[in-house]
């Protein structure tokens, strides 16, 4: 009897241990190759990704892992939709995903994570999303026509709470590389984003209607804005970004559509822009269909290298050759700080604060600005319809303000 009990215990433990062990590592890991993915770069693996997701997302456990091992997977549009039963979802994206190129298969996104909580997407350094945008850029009419068909965003997060995205590469997106919409508590870091300088609408990361978003430590070289912060956002922090080529880091464009919400509490800091069209920019459309507010923003510790418009507020934004009525923008901009911004400007007008005649900018602050002009002795500032406070170094010198009805 004395010998049976330990044996029984051992047997029991033998049962229990592999079980507890496997439930925290193995049985919770869903490997796309176990669901039929070929990973040969030629076979359409969309169905295998879908099957993996459907199996893992319904698994009622603490933490679930989806594993995409290193290989090249051809993938059409796909939605990883939640909520999942697990408390957290870990998407281990080591593979190289290649988008199919027939636009007829797509709606607004290639890879979409939707309605998820506690999601981590980690590319481990080599995980890559290749949008193969070269095949569709010529169908993008958005640079020419306002009412254009939008091409698919490579990686879109919609309605997610507590998300981390890291160590991932995005190449040649068809449209934006990444979109973050209606998300709260979203962190992205160590991203490498790349598309040719002349590729249309390949914004790096576009954020909209989201809060508590942090984007950090990333390199973005693309054809449009490196980061664009659209309507409805609050508490967004962008830091440690190397941007360029591209159109810079932008707030906006705002005031294009009806029912847009306010944008506030933004911090853009500790970043370097090189050879970009703009540095830090706030852009709002003329003819905005309704009023909204854009306020409480800090742009600080930013280095400009040969940037065309280092500091710019443009409230008559209209990228098209003709723009209808030209009613002044009704987005009200206030409480903006630009501080410790230095480097070189490619155009003579290093600072351009061009605000709305309808709702002039209030409380714009410039502190310690040193922008030299490439190949020229000195540059200048321009401003319109803005109340501006200057302190510390001011190179170029403050503009002679053309103040109207403030
Ligand atoms: C790839 O597979 C998915 C899912 O089976 C299918 O809907 C899609 O049409 C396929 N795409 C191509 C280009 O074969
Ligand atoms: C997310 O994770 C936190 C912390 O582990 C947990 O309290 C919460 O219930 C999780 N959310 C969901 C929807 O499972
Ligand atoms: C966020 O999700 C991670 C895992 O994905 C979890 O560890 C963390 O506790 C969650 N945080 C909150 C506040 O729920
Ligand atoms: C990434 O890929 C390179 C080249 O294939 C390899 O040398 C390196 O070890 C990989 N890094 C990781 C973290 O897998
Ligand atoms: C303001 O923007 C309008 C429209 O783009 C432009 O015509 C005007 O010259 C700009 N003013 C300044 C001071 O840049």
Automatic annotation (TrEMBL):
Stored Gene3D superfamilies: Single-stranded right-handed beta-helix, Pectin lyase-like (2.160.20.10)
Record's subcellular location: Secreted, Cell wall
One Pfam short name: Glyco_hydro_28
SUPFAM superfamilies the UniProt entry points to: Pectin lyase-like
A GO MF label: polygalacturonase activity
Annotated family: Belongs to the glycosyl hydrolase 28 family.
InterPro entries hit by this protein: Glyco_hydro_28, PbH1, Pectin_lyas_fold, Pectin_lyase_fold/virulence
Superkingdom per UniProt: Eukaryota
Name of the molecule in the record: Exopolygalacturonase
Main localisation: secreted
Example of a GO biological process term: cell wall organization
PROSITE patterns according to UniProt: POLYGALACTURONASE
Catalytic residues in the record: 247
Span of the signal peptide: 1-22
Function: May function in depolymerizing pectin during pollen development, germination, and tube growth. Acts as an exo-polygalacturonase.
Catalytic activity: [(1->4)-alpha-D-galacturonosyl](n) + H2O = alpha-D-galacturonate + [(1->4)-alpha-D-galacturonosyl](n-1)
Record has Iron as a keyword: no
EC number(s) on file: 3.2.1.67
Keywords noted in UniProt: Cell wall, Cell wall biogenesis/degradation, Glycosidase, Hydrolase, Secreted, Signal
């Amino acid at each position: 009897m004395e010998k049976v009990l330990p044996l029984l215990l051992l047997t029991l433990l033998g049962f229990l241990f592999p079980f507890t062990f496997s439930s925290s590592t193995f049985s919770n890991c869903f490997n796309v190759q176990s669901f039929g993915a070929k990973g040969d770069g030629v076979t359409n693996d969309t169905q295998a990704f879908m099957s993996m997701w459907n199996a893992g997302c319904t698994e009622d456990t603490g933490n679930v892992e989806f594993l995409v091992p290193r290989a090249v997977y051809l993938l059409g549009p796909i939605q990883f939709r939640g909520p999942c039963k697990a408390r957290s979802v870990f998407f281990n994206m080591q593979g190289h995903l290649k988008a199919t190129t027939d636009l007829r298969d797509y709606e607004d996104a290639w890879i979409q994570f939707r309605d998820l909580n506690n999601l981590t997407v980690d590319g481990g350094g080599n995980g890559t999303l290749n949008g193969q945008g070269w095949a569709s850029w010529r169908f993008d009419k958005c640079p020419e026509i306002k009412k254009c068909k939008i091409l698919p965003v490579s990686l879109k997060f919609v309605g997610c709470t507590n998300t981390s995205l890291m160590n991932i590469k995005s190449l040649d997106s068809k449209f934006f590389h990444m979109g973050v919409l209606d998300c709260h508590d979203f962190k992205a870091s160590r991203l490498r984003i790349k598309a040719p300088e002349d590729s249309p609408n390949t914004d790096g990361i576009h954020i909209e209607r989201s809060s508590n978003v942090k984007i950090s430590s990333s390199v973005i070289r693309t054809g449009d804005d490196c980061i664009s912060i659209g309507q409805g956002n609050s508490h967004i922090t962008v830091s440690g970004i190397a941007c360029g080529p591209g159109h810079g880091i932008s707030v906006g464009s705002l005031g294009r559509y009806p029912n847009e919400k306010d944008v506030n509490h933004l911090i853009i800091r500790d970043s370097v822009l090189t050879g970009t069209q703009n540095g830090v920019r706030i852009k709002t459309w003329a003819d905005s269909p309704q009023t909204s507010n854009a306020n409480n923003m800090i742009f600080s510790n930013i280095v400009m290298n040969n940037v065309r418009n280092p500091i710019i507020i443009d409230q008559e934004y209209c990228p098209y050759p003709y723009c209808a009525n030209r009613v002044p923008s009704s987005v009200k901009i206030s409480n903006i700080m630009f501080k410790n911004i230095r480097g070189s400007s490619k155009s003579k007008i290093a600072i351009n604060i061009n605000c709305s005649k309808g709702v002039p900018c209030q409380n714009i602050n410039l502190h310690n600005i040193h922008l030299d002009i490439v190949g020229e002795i000195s540059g200048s500032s321009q401003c319109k319809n803005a109340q501006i406070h200057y302190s510390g170094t001011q190179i170029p010198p403050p503009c002679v303000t053309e103040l109207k009805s403030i």
